[in-house]
Amino acid sequence: MSDVLLDVRNLSRRFDVSKPWLNRKLEGLEKLYVKAVDDVSFTVNRGETFALVGESGSGKSTIAKLIVGLLKPTQGEIFFSGQSLARGLSGAEARRLRRRFQMIFQDPLASLNPRWRVTDIIAEPLRVFERSMDDRARRLRVGELLTLVGLSPEDGVKFPHQFSGGQRQRIAIARALAAKPEFIVCDEPTSALDVSVQAQILNLMKDLQKEFGLTYVFISHNLQVVRHMADHIGVLYLGRLAEVAPARDLFEAPRHPYTRMLLDAVPDIEMTGRRRKKVEGEIPSPLSPPPGCAFHPRCPFANDRCKTEVPRTLGGVACHAVEEGRLSDLVQP
Amino acid sequence: MTEPLLSVRGLTVEFPTRHGILTAVEDITLDIMPGEVLGMVGESGAGKSMTGNAIIGLIEPPGRIARGEILLKGQRIDNLPPDEMRAIRGRRIGMIFQDPLTSLNPLYRISDQLVETIRTHLPMSQEAARKRAIQLLDDVGIPDAARRIDDYPHQFSGGMRQRVVIALALCAEPDLVIADEPTTALDVSVQAQIIDVMKQLCADRGAAILLVTHDMGVIAETANRVAVMYAGRIAEIGPVREVIKDARHPYTAGLMGAIPRLGENLDRLQQIPGAMPRLSSIPQGCAFNPRCPKVFDRCRSHRPSLSQAEVGRQVACWLYDGVTEA
Q1: Is residue A137 included in any domain, yes or no?
Q2: pLDDT of B250-268, one tens digit each?
Q3: Contact of A128 with A187, CB cutoff 8 Å
Q4: In which element (H, E) is residue B196 found?
Q5: Is A295 domain-assigned?
Q6: Is residue B259 less than 8 Å (CB to CB) from chain A?
Q7: Residue A141: enclosing H or E segment and its boundaries?
Q8: Quick one: three-class SS letters along B262-308?
Q9: Predicted confidence band at A1 (pLDDT cuts at 50, 70, 90)?
Q10: Does A264 contact chain B (CB < 8 Å)?
Q11: Radius of gyration of chain B (CA)
């Protein structure tokens, strides 16, 4: 049994999207909530990459923010190496725990302060977490970090706008590594980048993972990228986990009908001439999700039970049809 | 031999700036046959959108077409006065842009926008145009078109909006549709639907498509031929299957290797070192030479031009220079 680093249990988060109080009173409206994340549970083993995939509005980024503490969960628990993060932590304890995880965002230009030099950006975590470090040692460490991500120590005097998109993402990675974290949440780290640059960043992330034994939660909408990076994958649909499986199993024998649909929709770049099923419908509005299984209006296997009863997660899949064995004969070899 | 529908000859687009003239697109030569889907791929800044904009005469000043000519069914369209160009735009060349929300006016109903476009280009009564608009919406796969036609753009989802934009582009039965990143803003499952709609409609109507995208996957699914752009020039052009399976230009090969695939379990992706040069500092010789694994002396001093590597395939690379002379 591998060592569990992150354990997310029954995590839910809803957002209040009601109109202002006066409008509600005048128009006789109820309070309105969006369930961005609904009863999500998964575990991440130390040294592995756990990927969350889903289309827009599936709650991927909300989960990322919940894990690093940028949002508070409405319900549920998050345990990081056995300690609960969801209950408010006391100052010193929080500080000790927080330096062990970091986050990388999608748009490096938005996550780097445009008025700071790169050295200052990367040194900030050091100033916060390594107070005893003197200026000289800090500068040396920044130089090391820049070299580590494939930039040169002389680049430290420049500002973020003087770099290309890929280089900026390298700076964001250097900053994330500055505090020597064990765990990094990556929210669409390469989706703003061109493919050739994306390959550089993905390779870099894999190298760093090997070198420092990092654990990643990797969030992406791109199935090919996820296939390349992840050990385990969770497929999200409208805030719920449809399927959690080891990467190899998920791609070779997807079980949930939604996973199958997603895989079918990926463009066939090998030009194998594979015939694909027509994709039906779109993600419904999270404001009024369908009752029962949220996927049932688009699902070719839906029956009456799917329309009323929310499926429980059994063996990594939340689907009545799989549970009842209605799909077993359809699993591709 | 059939005459090409669109023929671009030596197209060069320049932007005069304080720091000298920047060449965004240089010496592009390509043909699109009737009913053909020509893909144009490249990374950001490769000049793919600029080429599309030049064809429909939408280069923003101070940018200008410095050299070359564009022929639509043998007629030059790059030097037409704005009025005549406007008659061609929309009527004979339709356009689909990346973000459907910016191509639709948020203050007008879909019906108004469609009917206006149809009546601008075709002599039709209000009722006939409305009927045609409903038929178009139906063709692009909008359910319950007769009722949805009076909705506003914000009442549609992203995928549905892009369908409306496709309907708008096809209003006047154009010969050519220029689609600039039509699926980039969409989720994968919706992207697959939009690709199907575009392919189907153009096949039904015999319209040709210039598909501009950075996504090789979309090209593989859709296009007949593909032009790979790098730093404002075409690096390679040829049938999709051949370019993808057997890339000739080192840049194309690197680009293909950099794409993670579903079917493989590689530990590392192939990577091209460095990044695309800025327009202000395109290297001497071949623009790709500082990143090229097969670079030799000639690449650093002389710029290769597009030449025939074999039937139907052209490559701008000195590696294949001998092939043409032989």
Answers
A1: no
A2: 999 998 888 888 776 667 8
A3: no
A4: helix B188-205
A5: yes
A6: yes
A7: helix A135-148
A8: CCCCCCCCCCCCCCCCCHHHCCCCCCCHHHCCCCCHHHHHCCCCCEE
A9: very low
A10: yes
A11: 21
User: H or E element: which one contains B29?
Assistant: strand B20-32
Domain that holds residue A192: 4-100+181-330
pLDDT in tens, A27-65: 888 888 888 899 999 999 999 999 999 888 888 889 998
A332 class by beta-carbon count within 10 Å (0-12 exposed, 13-18 middle, 19+ buried): exposed
How close, in Å, is residue B180 to chain A by CA atoms? 16
Domain count, chain A: 1
Asked whether the predicted pLDDT for residue B44 surpasses 90, the reply is no
Tokens matching residue B29: 């030569």
Residue A233 pairs with which residues in a beta bridge?
Answer: A51, A245
Which helix H or strand E contains A35, and what residues bound it?
Answer: strand A33-45
Distance CA B78, CA B65 (A): 8
The answer to whether residue A120 is domain-embedded is no
Residue from the list A166, A263, A264 with its beta carbon closest to the beta carbon of B275? A166
User: Chain B contact for A46, CB < 8 A?
Assistant: no
Q: Which of B220, B257, B258 sits opposite A267 (nearest CB)?
A: B220
For residues A104 and A298, give the distance between their C-alpha atoms in angstroms, rounded to a whole number. 33
Mind telling me how many Å the CA of A97 is from chain B's nearest CA?
A: 31
pLDDT above 90: residue B277:
no
- When pLDDT is cut at 50, 70 and 90, the band that residue B222 belongs to is confident
Distance (Å) from the alpha carbon of A85 to chain B's nearest alpha carbon: 32
Distances (CA, A) of A51 to A106, A234, B247, B289: 15, 6, 32, 37
Tell me, yes or no, whether A289 lies in a domain: yes
Cα gap B18→B279, rounded to integer Å: 14
User: B47 phi and psi, to 5 degrees?
Assistant: 95, 15
pTM to 2 decimals? 0.85
Convert the pLDDT of each residue in A218-229 to its tens digit: 999 888 899 889
Q: Are strands B233-239 and B225-230 parallel, antiparallel or unpaired?
A: antiparallel
Q: How many CB atoms lie within 10 A of CB B199?
A: 15
- Burial of B304: CB neighbours in 10 Å, binned 0-12, 13-18, 19+: buried
Instruction: Give the pair of three-digit tokens for residue B239.
Output: 């049938």
CATH number at residue A252: 3.40.50.300
